[in-house]
């Protein structure tokens, strides 16, 4: 976990710095086209990856035949999806009425040649206990991508240069992870031929990931089509401030929890305790994103500079949606570890239905907030369906999770309200931070009341004041 969150922290600083610089160089419409292109590229990306990285992470034992099968499948699907995507790019540009989308989509599509195989290599390194090598490969790729895109954008001024960051990062990450895998991976031989079972599981994961991407991207697609690329650009910059931490949290929770839950399920051990800790950790996002809703608007204004006032106004809405994304994603990870595939799909279909109804109601408006609210409503209802289903099983005490959500939510609302008042009363980021300080002090003093803190202390990640070290170590860290 230290490698995962350490590399994530460096990644956040890198992305924020890159965003601050590009926001002062590229126009709003360029970011709108780029944001839509990113979400469109996710669809063939998910098909190409095929859930193979998750299969590798969830494997009870990573054998040589499983690893090779995943590599072969990722290579074939990646090249195939790249070819189809290059041909379909002009049609996507015509659908949104943005001719500049064609070049951006084709540049972004180049990552499909190596990104799926790179994801499998990174997952294998993490599965065998080499997260440091995976973190170095990812960080090096991100740095290379940002540097190349920034240099080309500075020299040419072309907005299409924004689309170079991800392909360059994918190729660099692939090269480094492949080298590390050749040198470090020592997998057991077996006589199995897991390609068929791997295809079935990866096929399910692909379909489910496509459904999740559709639900997450539909609000932006509708807003971009109805409100234009300029509004989509404001949307993308405002969402970035919440997307960076939400991706870090979801990725960290999945990388820490999915292999552990897979191990416990393979050993026939109950999932109740780690499932509860997983949901408590995700629930802490209400506190974190409440703070983002309070301090995020002046922080984004400082980060992007003048001309982005429309994006600044959207930050609290995206922060609320991000907190819901984290708890919903944690619930999906738990259901996946339990093998509850039908429940996963049914819940996602409910989310899509609620989001669709919200988007239909938002049509005709001239503001992006109703579209954001439609996505947030889908996430809220989807997580409520998860909680209701868990209440009927012995997997998780849903009542305890609801109480954790409410506790963290109250703290988050207080932080958001204090930050908003401080910004309007005293002005800027210092005013927001000053107003939020008493609430933060109160949270620190009452930290034992927060389920996420108690869970972290129980598993040894934290030591409560007044407890002896040996008491803190009484519960082994492997219990999560």
Describe the 3D structure.
- With 480 residues, this protein is an all-alpha fold.
- It contains 20 helices and no strands.
Broad shape: globular
pLDDT averaged residue by residue:
83
User: Low-confidence parts, pLDDT < 50 over ≥5 residues?
Assistant: 466-480
Q: Strand content of the residues, in percent?
A: under 5%
Structural class: mainly alpha
- Quantity of strands, as a count: 0
Radius of gyration: 22 Å
Biggest sheet statistics: none
Task: Please give the share of residues in helix.
Answer: over 70%
List the helices and strands in order: HHHHHHHHHHHHHHHHHHHH
Helix segment tally = 20
Give the terminus-to-terminus CA distance: 11 Å
């Amino acid at each position: 976990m230290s490698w995962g969150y350490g590399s994530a922290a460096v990644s956040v600083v890198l992305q924020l710095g890159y965003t601050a610089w590009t926001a002062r160089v590229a126009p709003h419409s360029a970011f709108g086209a780029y944001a839509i292109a990113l979400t469109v590229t996710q669809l063939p990306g998910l098909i190409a990856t095929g859930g193979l990285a998750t299969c590798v992470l969830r494997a009870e034992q990573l054998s040589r035949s499983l690893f090779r099968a995943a590599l072969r499948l990722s290579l074939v699907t990646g090249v195939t999806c790249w070819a189809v995507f290059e041909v379909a790019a002009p049609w996507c540009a015509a659908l949104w009425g943005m001719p500049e989308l064609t070049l951006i989509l084709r540049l972004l599509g180049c990552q499909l040649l190596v990104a799926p195989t790179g994801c499998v290599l990174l997952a294998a390194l993490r599965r065998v206990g080499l997260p440091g090598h995976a973190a170095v490969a990812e960080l090096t790729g991100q740095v290379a991508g940002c540097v190349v895109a920034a240099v080309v954008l500075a020299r040419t001024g072309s907005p299409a240069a924004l689309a170079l960051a991800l392909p360059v990062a994918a190729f660099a990450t692939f090269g480094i992870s492949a080298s590390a895998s050749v040198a470090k991976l020592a997998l057991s031989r077996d006589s199995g031929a897991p390609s068929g079972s791997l295809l079935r599981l990866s096929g399910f994961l692909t379909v489910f990931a496509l459904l999740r991407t559709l639900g997450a991207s539909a609000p932006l697609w509708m807003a971009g089509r109805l409100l234009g690329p300029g509004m989509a650009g404001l949307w993308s910059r405002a969402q970035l401030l919440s997307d960076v931490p939400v991706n870090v949290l979801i990725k960290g929770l999945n990388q820490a929890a999915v292999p552990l839950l897979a191990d416990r399920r393979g050993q026939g051990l109950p999932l109740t305790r780690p499932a509860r800790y997983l949901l408590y950790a995700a629930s802490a996002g209400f506190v974190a994103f409440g703070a983002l809703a309070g301090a995020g608007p002046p922080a984004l204004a400082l980060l992007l500079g003048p001309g982005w006032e429309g994006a600044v106004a959207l930050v609290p809405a995206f922060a609320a949606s991000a907190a819901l994304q984290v708890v919903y994603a944690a619930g999906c990870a738990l259901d996946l570890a339990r093998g509850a595939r039908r429940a996963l799909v049914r819940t996602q279909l409910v989310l899509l239905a609620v989001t669709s109804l919200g988007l239909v109601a938002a049509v005709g408006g001239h503001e992006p907030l109703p579209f954001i609210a439609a996505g947030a409503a889908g996430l809220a209802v989807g997580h409520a369906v998860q909680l209701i289903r868990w209440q009927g099983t012995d997997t998780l005490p849903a009542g305890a999770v609801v109480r954790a959500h409410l506790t963290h939510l109250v703290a988050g609302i207080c932080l958001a309200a204090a930050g908003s008042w401080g910004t309007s009363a005293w002005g800027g980021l210092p005013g927001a931070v000053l107003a939020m300080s008493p609430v933060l002090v109160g949270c620190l003093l009452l930290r034992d009341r927060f389920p996420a803190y108690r869970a972290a202390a129980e598993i040894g990640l934290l030591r409560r004041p007044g407890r002896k070290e040996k008491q803190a170590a009484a519960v082994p860290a492997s219990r999560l």
